[in-house]
User: Fold these one by one.
Assistant:
Number 1:
Amino acid sequence: MPKIIAVGMQKGGVGKTTISVNLAGYLAKLGNKTLLIDADPQASATKFFLDDVDLKESMSALFDLADPWAIVREAPQLIKETNIENLYIAPSTIVLSAVESGTFEEPSRRFKYWIDATCKEFDYIIIDCPPSLGRLCSNALVAAKYVVVCSEPETQSYDALPIFLSNIEKIRNINPDLKIAGLIVNCLSENQLGHAHYARQMKEMNIYIGTLHRRSAFVDMSHERSLIINTSVSNISRIKGEFESILNKIIQRTNNN
């Protein structure tokens, strides 16, 4: 059975997709058959790999507004190849946002049903969660064995952190095996006084596993559909090292539990 890792935080703009894409790419590079599930209606992870997506062959197919009681289990057509060896993606579309307001049978277990029936051949499954605490996030956490939490060292992210951790505890009523694989502090600028303060607070948490410093070249790589783990650009060698250290810690924690 695959190791399923959700990457989440209800606040947007904290780097969930960047971390999800690079974690999935790193696992694939190590020889693991890896599936990246895009559970975010913004579909940023999908756009990193695919130009066009058929609605009937995206994650929105698991939630049929015309037949809200129908549960999809085996649906291999939702899995698409990427240009990276061993890496596949289950794409998202904006239509997936309808899940939050629609009425569905078993609304928080649809991902789990599909993964259990369709995705057994994978070594790892990474789920890029939406920036919310709604049904899509619940679907990801109910299906996952591990969750990686992302936060920036600033007021809004820091204040949102205990809310997300509390939501994980609630999900454990449904999925008692869910474990936190780590907390990542993203986009740290050491010359900002507030950043230093909040980073220090988060580094003291027992779930902290590493920090990624802010680099403009890193943002450019996302726009260019380039994985940081594959780069040879010298001015981001530091953050590449930080990224690989964090990804190795995630792999180690998921292997040890």
Number 2:
Amino acid sequence: GGALEELVQRAESLDRLTSGLKKVLEPGLASHLKGANLRPDGQLVLVAESPAWAARLRFEADKLMAAAQDGGAKVNSCKVIVAKD
């Protein structure tokens, strides 16, 4: 219970968010979306595999924000970052 349970629920929620966002992208692009986070201030943060894929995801920001909102998230902005290995 407690903090561990909250952490597990948060991880599952972010996994569902990422999976839902991948569904609205073409498969070739979806595979380069490594994860998503929704910050308390409403910022959707997308994690891309490389700078090139980050640029492609930025072009899809409006579509991804709309998809997150359709899933019940309160989103007001989108940021794409690159995963560091």
Number 3:
Amino acid sequence: LAKSPFEVDALRLEPEDEARSAKVAPIHAKGKRVTLAAIDGSAPAVKTIVQRLTDDGYAVEVVTGSLSGLSHLWESYQYLPKEAVQITGKVVIPGDEFVKARASFKVLGAVRDALVAYDPKATSIAEVLNEVMLGALVQRASDVHFEPGDKNVRLRYRIDGLLHDIMLDFRKEAYARLLSRIKLLSKLKLNVTSEPQDGRFSLVLPEGKEIEIRVSIIPSEYGETIVLRVLYQDALTMSLDSLGLRADDLAILEEELRAPNGMILNTGPTGSGKTTTLYVFLRHKQSPEMKIITIEDPIEYHLEGIEQTGVDREAGYDFASGLHSIMRQDPDVILVGEINDK
């Protein structure tokens, strides 16, 4: 096994701790056919794994390997890209609220008026969050900013790259409850107020569409600051032609994307469309003959047929170590989300 070719991706079929305990390792996986290496194929733990794979619809072949060979395979678990971060809480937007918001929130002042009319005795903080997010959706805001001051909290939307004031006097007592609501939805720690925290939740719209909301919370002088990034899934259906590039720039890009090798750097300010553009590039390159892997912080949109990995600094998986791991996965195309370290 130490000298035989094997597929690192096959290791995904069995968690590392269980593989080491049962002294097994999946070495090949093609469609629903799996080859499992084991020291003793008749061991109860191995039979349990084979039965589980069989129940999942796999045809399993068991081959015999030595402990040293299996140990070599187990070391390769470190090269498996980290799995995408799962969305946690979900906010279901009622149909009548959605229809009303689309009709009434066409101007920014209407969002402010709705929030000013908030009555803490008659309206839940969940409804306030819904109003804020519905206003952002109708206005196609890319980000929602809550910025605590000495007496009140400032609420702003980023629209087409520019920040617009929605409220300068969002009440602090309401903000404290809103902050707790967002932390609960994002499964963040309620009692941690002096450290940055990142999470995400999703909005479920009446048409069945889900919009992911990425949450960033950092401590500031007057309390915790929240930025909510709105990730519109329709960005995934865009084509190169629909990005709004000039014809001469588009021709250059198409030529570069056809090249068999090379590098494209995409830069720009917050909200300028960097991520959307990069994902359109990936979809343009995508084909059954190509393996595409990304390393992002965090994964913003989930692309079918593309292997996406998220940075996990606590586990030692940063852009540098992630890139080392990705290179062992035989990729044709790599997307690196940031190159801001050596």
